[in-house]
Amino acid sequence: MTRKMLALLFAFAVGAIVGHVTTPSGTPLVGVAQAQSHKPVFMTRLFTGPDNLTHSEEVAMDFLPGGVLKLLPITSGELHLAAPGNVIDWHRAPRRQYVITLVGHAELEVAGGKKVNVGPGHVDLVEDVTGKGHITKVVGTDDRITLQLPLADQSGK
After folding, report:
1. Edge-to-edge strands of the sheet including 78-82?
2. Stated pTM of the model
3. What is the pLDDT of residues 19-35, one digit of tens each?
C-alpha cells in the first residue's frame, strides 16, 4: 500500500474517531467542542496481570487544549475486516497496539468472564502480549472493520 493511500486511510480513521467518540454510557461526542466540555472520554486497555490473565481497565483520554490527544508513537497502520459471528478464541495480542473499531461491533472477553462491548469509535490499547489472552467475538449483523496501529515501543515501559 502506498504512503499516500495509508495517509488517506489514517486521516479517514482519525476523522471517524474525532467525529464519533463515545463515552462509556454510549453517548456520542461529536466534534472538538464537546471534547473540551470536560466530559470524560475513555479508551479500554487490555493488559496481562500478575495472575497471567488478561484484564481490562478504562483509561481516561486526556485531551489537550484545542481538543488534541497525543497517542503513543506508532509504526504503521492496518485495516482488518471480520465477518459477523467471527470468533477468535483465547489469544494474545500479536504486539502492543491501538485497535480502533471503525464499523461494526465486538465483544472482548477477559479474565473472570468480564465482557467489554466495543463499537464504532471505540479505542482499545491492547497490551496483553503474554499470558492467556482474551476472546474476540464479532456481534451483530455487520462486518467489523478495525484500524490497528502498532506501537513503536514494544517493550511496554
Report:
1. 54-60, 42-48, 123-126, 97-103, 144-150, 78-82
2. 0.76
3. 444 444 444 444 444 44
Summarised one tens digit per residue, pLDDT across range 97-141 is: 999 999 999 999 999 999 999 999 999 999 999 999 999 999 999
User: E strands of 85-122, at which residues?
Assistant: 87-91, 97-103, 105-109, 115-118
Grid coordinates of 34: 464537546
Please give the angle made by the CA atoms of 59, 153 and 39, to the nearest 5 degrees.
20
Collect all residues with Cβ–Cβ distance below 8 Å to 24 and sequence separation of at least 6: 42, 58
In 3D space, the residue among 112, 103, 76, 94 whose CA is nearest the CA of residue 20 turns out to be 103
- Beta-bridged to residue 136, according to DSSP, are 88, 108
Q: Which three cell numbers stand for residue 61?
A: 483520554
Question: Residue 62 and residue 71: Cα distance in Å, rounded?
Answer: 10
> In the 3-class helix/strand/coil scheme, how is 9-44 assigned residue by residue?
HHHHHHHHHHHCEECCCCCEECHHHHHCCCCCCEEE
